[in-house]
Amino acid sequence: xxxxxxxxxxxxxxxxxxxxxxxxxxxxxxxxxxxxxxxxxxxxxxxxxxxxxxxxxxxxxxxxxxxxxxxxxxxxxxxxxxxxxxxxxxxxxxxxxxxxxxxxxxxxxxxxxxxxxxxxxxxxxxxxxxxxxxxxxxxxxxxxxxxxxxxxxxxxxxxxxxxxxxxxxxxxxxxxxxxxxxxxxxxxxxxxxxxxxxxxxxxxxxxxxxxxxxxxxxxxxxxxxxxxxxxxxxxxxxxxxxxxxxxxxxxxxxxx
Length: 256
Fold this sequence. Notes:
256 residues; alpha+beta; five-stranded mixed β-sheet; two-stranded antiparallel sheet; globular
């Protein structure tokens, strides 16, 4: 199949989506596939200090102690929604007041490279974030906390972004563990315009996938659970337009 034929098929599907209105995402599987490419893992960032196994164990036991035997809830607002690394026995929607999603973390690994850095979501101060609360199984709670730390916290510097926050639910407030809340340091770029974020997300890709894919999966799974984040919804439209422009698809039209 020629590139032009593939491009025409992408345009046909995109036009179908747009004709159906705003209930369907502009960013599609086909467009996301254009953002993917093979990249080598560059390895740990030299300026950051990896957690040792001993430090990880101390950290995990501290969080276990802080959970105080109460039900252990984890607040997911990004990839933990669609790629959890724990055993959840219950989930419900929740709102973290005083926090909002922000593509504010520059990354040169995972979904970006040193020559084409990406952006990762974190929770930043202000506003409200609607997300998913997962209750972890009580069996092997320490082991599950270890798994979460290995996935989310690779360095000593990152450990400061793990905190307990109150999350509002339909049944009242629960205390939940959240990762990447209030990051600080040279990697943080706050209040970037959505157009600037979209340009990065449409182009960045690393050995674990692309930033466009990360955005797509987050929006898709939020929608499936009845949550629409206004900024993310606008952002997926902008990233779709960027991908169309990058791959020269904006001018293609279908013959009658």
